[in-house]
Amino acid sequence: MKRVLPDTNFYELMLKYLEVEKIRKVKESGAIVFYGIDIIRKELRATPKTKVEVVRNELFKLRSTLLLVYDLLIGRHQYGIDSKINQYADNYYIAYKVLKGKATREEIINDFRIVACATIHNIDILVSDDNKTMLSQESKKAYTSVNNIHKLTTPNFIGFEEFKRFLRGVKLD
Fold this sequence. Notes:
This protein is an alpha/beta fold. It contains 8 helices and 8 strands; from the N terminus they run E-H-H-E-E-H-E-E-H-E-H-H-E-H-E-H. It is 54% helix and 15% strand. The mean pLDDT is 93.
């Protein structure tokens, strides 16, 4: 069983990759336990109510469908932001700036909170395709340096394509 925290971009990619019934089977397989964080749910809620998406020739109201997929996968496994997560995120940001990271605090702090949450709660895998901020070289070096100081394990980062390869080993029928 792998403990996985998907980033915000994961949910739309998952919806395009699998129909909702197969997404339900991924969760029911027990091979993966999904975790969420309130920041991600808030980002999904920020999707305009009127935005629609065509997936496999079906029209979806994107916001409500993304929230449905989030709630389906995460269930009760949602974390909130606390002072410890904020402190680690601030430490990541300081290290990131020392490493000449370019993003502003406002652009990147939620990414750092997500990684801090995954780190503190011993999440095995963080799934994200955010190579510009969360998975930039400066960011990854910042996580490693701060986590090494505190003797914490940094989660493994994988993109959605690698996650799909992992799913091939999960029985969905």
